[in-house]
Design a protein that fits this description.
InterPro entries: P-loop_NTPase (IPR027417). By secondary structure, the chain is an alpha/beta fold. The chain has eight helices and eleven strands. The strands form three sheets. It has a seven-stranded mixed β-sheet with strand order 1-11-10-9-2-8-3. The longest helix has 14 residues.
Length: 207
């Protein structure tokens, strides 16, 4: 794979331009996917909001971590089970139903920005938010690709195997990400792949 070195600021600028060019649907869903704690998915997603707004595109942030299943389901097989991390932690149905489906052509346009507070293990009771036509919802999180979630643009922050083992804070979770790479192959599914072995010096994949 060939990569072009790029600064974080220029990366955000180029992604903003690419998102701004998406006009086929009334509302756009963007995924920023990467290993939790080892890739700056939140920082990159946040960096896109203001530039999009300056281009006249309303932008709303959603974090997949606010759509985790309750602890009783996530930790049914223990708190450090990598297979459960891969298959059971994220409530895919809720993320699809409450965020992505409303953005579809005939959707209501009203999304739920958060569902579950994983730290307190209770519902957030967040109010629905109306996304205007032309609006963009940016979802950041881990293991987002290959599960049938309908994103208009998917960005995958890729780590080499060595960097993955070095940078993931929860060593027990590394097998979940390795399984993700092997089974889902997120780099093949993503529209944009960015190598982030060193987050200060990302590199954009160029086919």
């Amino acid at each position: 794979m060939r990569y072009r070195p790029i600064s974080p600021a220029v990366l955000a600028e180029e992604l903003t331009e690419r998102i701004g060019a998406l006009t086929e649907r009334p509302r756009i869903a963007v995924a920023i996917d990467g290993a939790a704690g080892a890739t700056e998915t939140t920082e990159l997603a946040d960096a896109l909001v203001e530039p999009l707004r300056l281009r006249g595109r309303a932008a709303l942030r959603v974090s997949a971590r606010d759509f985790l299943r309750p602890a009783s389901l996530r930790f049914e097989h223990g708190r450090t089970n990598p297979d459960a991390r891969y298959t059971d932690w994220l409530d895919l149905g809720a993320l699809r139903r409450e965020v992505l489906d409303p953005l579809a052509g005939r959707g209501s346009g009203e999304i739920l920005p958060s569902l579950w507070d994983a730290e307190r293990d209770r519902a957030t009771r967040a109010a629905r938010v109306a996304v205007p036509k032309g609006g963009v919802v940016i979802v950041d999180g881990e293991l987002l690709l290959g599960a049938g979630l309908a994103f208009d643009l998917a960005v995958h922050l890729w780590l080499s195997p060595a960097a993955l083992r070095r940078r993931v804070p929860d060593a027990w979770a590394v097998p979940a990400y390795e399984r993700y790479e092997e089974e889902a192959d997120p780099s093949a599914l993503a529209d944009v792949v960015v190598r982030v072995d060193d987050p200060r010096h990302p590199a954009l994949y160029t086919p």
